[in-house]
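In the current project phase, we have settled on a layout for protein records. One protein thus recorded is set out beneath this paragraph:
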Amino acid sequence: MTPWEIHAIELTNCNCNFGCPCQFGVLPNRGNCEAAVVFDIEHGHHGDTDLSGLRAAAIYHWPGAIHEGNGQMQLVIDTAATDAQATALERIMTGQDTEEMKTMWFVYARMSPTRYPTLRRPIDLTHDMDARTGRVRIDGVADIDLVPVPNIVTGEPHRALLKLPHGFEFREAEVASGRTTLTGGEVAFAPLIDTHAHFARLHLSHAGVIEGAA
């Protein structure tokens, strides 16, 4: 196993209601799970391969809850990555160099027997975690937009935090509202409109969440 470490901002949009039942050990409220996830890596490495400044994404579909399996997944790695960097990210995001059950990537890959070839595409990304806004354009794959959850009465931005003291993905996330339209790729699902989204700071390694950094 090659040791690795990643410190990144994660932007996620899934098909469930705000809050995401998965975070509470509850079945998905629409019966299945569909998601687009983007990673903006601030710094990191896989063995001697530097991963700082790279971007990657993943598109997922499960016919039921994630833990029930039978999922599909496709990774996207920014064209700015070298072949060595792309290979390293692919190994990390498919759980190949991770201790068993220690990251969400390990779980998602094990629960997705259908894995389509990794795509190389430019990932155009802007985000402001404090403002809970983000815009992602992956040519021929997906358009993703995140905005604050609106107050149900006034429409003003509503702030909510997810805190998971023992989470294996993040320990705290800012909840947002997301819209995703898939424009290509092998995984397909209908547009996500005003569904759960979040921003989180990831501090992960082959052994799981890096204590003290998360």
User: Anything to note?
Assistant: The chain is about 10% helix and 45% strand. The mean pLDDT is 96. The chain has one domain: 4-209. The two ends are 23 Å apart (CA to CA).
